[in-house]
Amino acid sequence: MATGFANPFDAQRSVRWRVSVGIACLILAATTAFVAYLNIASVIRVVNSVEADGGYIREGGMTAAVLIIAAYCLVAVAYCAVGVWGIVARRSASSVPVIATIVVSGLVFIAVVAMLAESASAGSTLHFAGIASNVVIIMRSIQVLRSKKAVQVPTNTGGWTPLSR
């Protein structure tokens, strides 16, 4: 059974939504990579200032900083992968890239909410922007998945019609 969209408007809308979701993922990948860079620079500044004062950073503190930076890098790579995949597969009827986008955005959403719930601070604007953008990506991806597909009716019946009996 061939899959297609109900009409050309639905097909163009699906392509447009897939591209917009892919671009949003790439923007989040760049933002997350920038935050990872800022964390690396911050850790380097702190280590240099502490060492200049003759002190040292405990192993637990450095481990936590490295794990946070690694998590940001992993999220950036995941966003980049699903963003590129979504753009490349924009004309495909496959739902796998869209489902992957939902999974990545959902996991990041849960991680950010858990991080905000655990921290004593109210969170920064960047965290709330990340939550909002993940919600938008998830909603757009669900709209792409729910787009109606039409069953293509064969146009050439080989001369057979119900009235030819």
How is this fold's topology laid out?
Layout (H helix, E strand, L loop, with lengths): L2 E3 L2 H45 L6 H30 L7 H23 L6 H22 L2 E3 L14
Antiparallel strand pairs: 1-2
Care to describe what's here?
The chain is mainly α. It has one domain (3-148). Helix content is 73%, strand content 4%. Strands 1-2 form a two-stranded antiparallel ribbon. α1 packs antiparallel against α2 (59-88). 18% of the residues are buried.
The largest sheet, given as strand count, sense and whether it forms a barrel, is: 2 strands, antiparallel
Let me know the number of strands.
Answer: 2
The main sheet orders its strands as 1-2
> Mean pLDDT score, rounded?
80
Question: How large is the count of helical segments?
Answer: 4
How do the helices and strands follow one another from N- to C-terminus?
Answer: EHHHHE
Structural class call reads mainly alpha
Structural domain tally: 1
Distance between the termini: 27 Å
* Percent in helix: over 70%
SS strand fraction = under 5%
Shape annotation: elongated
- Rg is 23 Å
Keyword list:
165 residues; mainly alpha; two-stranded antiparallel ribbon; 73% helix; disordered N terminus
